[in-house]
From TrEMBL:
The lineage of its organism: Bacteria, Bacillati, Actinomycetota, Actinomycetes, Kitasatosporales. Belongs to the uracil-DNA glycosylase (UDG) superfamily. Type 5 (UDGb) family. GO terms for biological process: base-excision repair. SUPFAM superfamilies: Uracil-DNA glycosylase-like. The keyword Endoplasmic reticulum does not apply. GO terms for molecular function: 4 iron, 4 sulfur cluster binding; DNA-deoxyinosine glycosylase activity; metal ion binding; uracil DNA N-glycosylase activity. This is Type-5 uracil-DNA glycosylase. Residues 46-228 form the Uracil-DNA glycosylase-like domain. It comes from the Bacteria. Keywords: 4Fe-4S, DNA damage, DNA repair, Hydrolase, Iron, Iron-sulfur, Metal-binding. PANTHER family: TYPE-5 URACIL-DNA GLYCOSYLASE. Pfam families: UDG (PF03167).
Length: 251
């Protein structure tokens, strides 16, 4: 098994946080009325995207009736609708829709993950749960390190969780730590070269794609695409038109 696939498999078996285990499983039993016919995933949700990704999108945690239901990051909720639509319009996703594990969605050069892999009550992990889950993100960063060039971090919680993870994975984080802001940009140098080699990664701050932000206009689709576009350029992922949008060639 490839290292990233093995890591993802181990993530799904984690039971380190009793409060999160109880909540994710309770949500899976009770279910939302609209999803009574679903068999909820109700486990930790691994990252999603290819092992050679050069751009990482870091969120907060799976939604109770989104990733916790479907088993894939940002899949089956309105936050994911906004994120994957933006990735699709930039040619980084095969579809603007993320519905279920078997919907055929693929990503190009991008991986989506979060610092907390279980759905938390009220979408609010505790600092202790964030820190307990950190080793998974550190290992993910170490596996991705040879090709990783940029990361878009969604929201202040993700930013606060990501910086120590990058430090633990071998990048040098400035002191004092950079503060989160939409449009913030900081380049981290790889510290002591390891077996997978040194390299820079540039972090971009972006408001989270939560309904609170997207419904109020604090984060618009254009704002999100602007950050993703800049990060994709840094990650050497030239934009191209999504499949099916190019005019047919005549010959």
């Amino acid at each position: 098994m490839e290292p990233l696939a093995e890591l993802d498999a181990r993530v799904t078996e984690c039971a380190a946080c009793p409060r999160l285990v109880a909540w994710r499983e309770e949500v899976g039993r009770v279910k939302r009325a609209a999803y009574q016919g679903w068999t909820y995933w109700a486990r930790p949700v691994p990252g999603f995207g290819p092992p050679d990704a050069s751009l990482l999108v870091i969120g907060l945690a799976p939604a109770a009736h989104g990733g916790n239901r479907t088993g894939r990051m940002f899949t089956g909720d309105r936050s994911g609708d906004v994120l994957y639509a933006a990735l699709y319009e930039l040619g980084l996703a095969s579809s603007p829709l993320a519905v279920s594990l078997d919907d055929g969605l693929t990503l190009r050069g991008v991986r989506v993950t979060s610092p907390v892999h279980c759905a938390p009550p009220e979408n609010k992990p505790t600092p202790g749960e964030r820190d307990t889950c950190r080793p998974w993100l550190v290992q993910e960063l170490e596996v991705l390190a040879p090709r990783l060039r940029a990361a878009v971090v969604l929201g202040a919680f993700g930013w606060q969780a990501a910086l120590p993870a990058f430090a633990a994975a071998g990048w040098r984080v400035p002191r004092p730590r950079p503060r989160f802001a939409h449009g913030a940009r900081v380049t981290l140098e790889r510290g002591t070269p390891r077996a997978n080699g040194p390299g820079q990664v540039t972090l971009y701050g972006c408001f989270h794609v939560s309904q609170r932000n997207t419904f109020t206009g604090r984060l618009t689709p254009e704002m999100l695409k602007d950050v993703l576009r800049e990060a994709a350029g840094e990650a050497c992922l030239p934009p191209y038109a999504p499949p099916g949008s190019l005019p047919h060639a005549h010959g």
